């Protein structure tokens, strides 16, 4: 799957979270929440936090699993100290294009999940990114959770228009 974020049907998509300032020159370390961290090289701006403050990117580099960003008009560490823990977003128009059978996580969260016979199973509440394949967390009406692997044999149909997913439950789920 592609990007993490909250359900806003979905004007903005999260691409990372600022973890801390980096050095004294106003740079920040960003933990990317996109499948392609190199995408930061193409971004000219990001939107900060729930207030969606526009930050123009002046420099991008990479260190281990992190992205190091410098923002225009933020020359010192003091100007970015308050950004720790805040999410970075892009508009949906700036999001990376999806391949067939790929979805943005915010489009899946909140989706009604039904079995292949049509019975309501619950609501998709979270997508766990495990490395091999994603796992969908579905909360049943009784509060219990079902974990469904995001593999072709289990996910039969996804309709973002109808906000509905049809699944085949493997034995034991």
UniProtKB/TrEMBL annotation:
Residues 14-93 form the RimM N-terminal domain. GO terms for cellular component: cytoplasm; ribosome. One of its GO terms (molecular function) is ribosome binding. Residues 107-173 form the Ribosome maturation factor RimM PRC barrel domain. The keyword rRNA processing applies. It is found in: Cytoplasm. Keywords: Chaperone, Cytoplasm, Ribosome biogenesis, rRNA processing. GO terms for biological process: ribosomal small subunit biogenesis; rRNA processing. The PRC barrel domain binds ribosomal protein uS19. Belongs to the RimM family. An accessory protein needed during the final step in the assembly of 30S ribosomal subunit, possibly for assembly of the head region. Essential for efficient processing of 16S rRNA. May be needed both before and after RbfA during the maturation of 16S rRNA. It has affinity for free ribosomal 30S subunits but not for 70S ribosomes. Binds ribosomal protein uS19. NCBIfam families: 16S_RimM. This is Ribosome maturation factor RimM. It comes from Candidatus Choladousia intestinavium.
